[in-house]
Design a protein that fits this description.
single chain; alpha+beta; 2 domains; three-stranded antiparallel beta sheet; two-stranded antiparallel ribbon; 1 helix; 23% helix; 41% strand; elongated
Length: 118
């Protein structure tokens, strides 16, 4: 797009937005690069136009355990006993233990609370 055809105030506004965006991307990259790596992390796919497609930004969690709560299932994933990974699940507040472990394919399964089963 040819910005020179826009009014001066619009050109300045676009330049300001571009500068703010560049600063935000730079700050995000510096934050991600300065983290201490750990065994537990979260990957975020962000469309930052740094490269073709989305950029993957990794956020490390400084812990030996992470808890995920979704769809009335509480899942604890922990690194234990050297190289082992422990999985433990229940309902939030341990209301019921009616949670199904449903294999889907090789190395993949779902945990589904009874009230969401079909």
């Amino acid at each position: 797009m040819d910005l020179t055809r826009l009014p001066k105030w619009a050109q300045d506004h676009i330049k300001t937005l571009q500068r703010e965006r560049d600063n935000a991307v730079r700050a995000l990259n510096e934050y991600c690069d300065s983290q201490t790596p750990s065994k537990i992390y979260v990957d975020h796919n962000e469309s930052l136009v740094e490269q073709a497609g989305a950029s993957t930004k990794r956020q490390f969690v400084q812990s030996e355990k992470v808890t995920i709560e979704h769809g009335n299932v509480l899942l604890n994933v922990a690194t234990v006993y050297g190289q082992d990974i422990s999985l433990q699940w229940s309902a939030p507040n341990y209301r019921t233990l009616d949670i199904a472990f449903i294999p889907e394919s090789y190395c993949r399964a779902r945990l589904v609370a009874k009230e969401y089963m079909r």
